[in-house]
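Example 4.3 (complexes with small molecules)
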Amino acid sequence: MTYVLGLTGSIGMGKSTTAQMFADAGVPVWDADATVRNLYAKGGAAAVEVARLYPSVITDSHVDRAKLRDLIAEDPAVLDHIQEVVHPLVAQDRADFLNATTAPIALLDVPLLFETGTDAMCDGVVVVTVPADVQRARVLARGEMSEADFDMILSRQMPDAEKRKRADWVIETLTLDAARQSVANILEQIKAGASNA
Ligand SMILES: CC(C)(COP(=O)(O)OP(=O)(O)OC[C@H]1O[C@@H](n2cnc3c(N)ncnc32)[C@H](O)[C@@H]1O)[C@@H](O)C(=O)NCCC(=O)NCCS
Ligand SMILES: Nc1ncnc2c1ncn2[C@@H]1O[C@H](COP(=O)(O)OP(=O)(O)OP(=O)(O)O)[C@@H](O)[C@H]1O
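Answer. The structure with dephospho coenzyme A bound is encoded below.
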């Protein structure tokens, strides 16, 4: 049996960086954001559906995220409609990944793990966190999102404090070394638990 470990955290908290640390330790990783990117690409199932609903956000047969962000900024209900299209396709891709894996531990990297109820299919959940001011500075430093875009995304996510309360493990991502050590400790604990079972 594969131990399914969920990884989540609010925007910019360090999910992708931490997921890479699990991957470096040999854990197969499924990435919800990467799945969405594939679904939005030319020929992707979501690109076809979104083109039908919102043709103005399509460029060269793929979903143009900058245009989609602008449309959502004008009308937040657009994101609800997009989620109705995208989330079932994401769930199918995740099921395919879990069915195919034979590893002892597999990681699901999912920004909306709790919001979508995906935590119910996890044996344990890791939440990554940093103080709110560090989070905001990190996201704005990327230069891809306006402050309004950031606040819109934040308002759609469960508050960080609530996520931490629900976590089995919390990783503070202030330094790479400390986070890497936390990843190693968590994997040790899961392996020890499995051998005691
Ligand atoms: C809103 C969009 C256009 C923003 O695209 P952009 O390239 O600027 O940012 P990116 O996709 O990297 O998202 C940044 C972060 O925003 C958060 N986020 C993304 N979508 C959502 C959402 N629907 N609700 C809350 N937070 C979200 C995540 O933490 C994500 O990691 C894009 O994320 C999107 O199309 N989202 C809808 C699909 C979805 O629900 N994805 C969530 C994973 S299943
Ligand atoms: N352990 C860490 N120590 C120091 N910096 C970190 C650590 N983890 C992540 N960071 C930095 O924080 C920023 C955000 O990290 P990352 O892209 O992994 O976050 P994310 O949660 O995947 O973001 P998003 O929700 O937008 O997809 C990056 O600049 C990254 O270098």
